[in-house]
Amino acid sequence: MDLRYRTSAQILHWLIALVVIGLLIVGLILKYDLASKAVEPTLAMLHMSFGLCILILMILRLGLRLTWTAPPLPDSISPAIRFASGATQALFYILLIAMPVFGVLFVEAHGKKVPFFGLFTLPTVVGKSDAVRHLFAFLHFWGGITVIALLFLHVAGAIRHQMRGERIIRRMMPRRSN
């Protein structure tokens, strides 16, 4: 039995990972005013647009994930680690779907429109509101910090399993043609 994820899951995994890492970096740059004022609007537009892409990709990934089962973990992995793996994956799904929503509501409560790569803006869901803006700024920021922590746990866990000879990383890598 092949213990690899399907090609579609692998592609979505790595695409989402790359975009999320970029979003986290740009989000921190914007949060802590590390960019020049001249590039901030462009960075903000890209952050919002790619955040919406993550929402779309995660909904697609969730839909695919609900239609098939993941390959089983190696027998050598303990029940506690299996639980931690499942919990981490569930938190990733929840946060990567919720974070763009939090971001949209934060921007709209700030009284601004949410652009999608300059092609169009999203319809407004909430009006300008300091209370709503503060709530979703808090949720978006701390959700991002949680995603960073989960990324470190996820990568550390994969490396740990690899070092133990459990070949976990291979599950998300494409097959090599010989």
Describe the structure.
This protein has 178 residues and is mainly α. It has a single domain (7-172), classed as Fumarate Reductase Cytochrome B subunit. The chain is built from 4 helices and 2 strands. The protein has helices at residues 7-31, 40-67, 79-109, 130-163; strands spanning 115-116, 120-121. It has a two-stranded antiparallel ribbon with strand order 1-2. Helix 3 packs antiparallel against helix 4. The protein starts with 6 loop residues before the first helix and ends in a 15-residue tail after the last helix. The model has no long low-confidence stretch (mean pLDDT 94).
Largest sheet: 2 strands, antiparallel
Net shape: elongated
- Tell me the Rg in angstroms: 18 Å
Please give the share of residues in helix. 55-70%
> Could you say how many structural domains there are in total?
1
**H/E topology pattern:** HHHEEH
Measured by DSSP, the beta-strand proportion falls in under 5%
Name the CATH superfamily classification.
Answer: Transmembrane di-heme cytochromes, Chain C
CATH architecture: Up-down Bundle
By DSSP (H or I, 4+ residues per run), the number of helices equals 4
From the 3D structure, determine the CATH topology: Fumarate Reductase Cytochrome B subunit
Give the overall pLDDT as a whole number: 94
Under the CATH scheme, which class? Answer: Mainly Alpha
| Major beta sheet, strand line-up | 1-2
| Low-confidence regions | none
β-strand number: 2
N-to-C span: 19 Å
Structural class estimated from helices and strands: mainly alpha
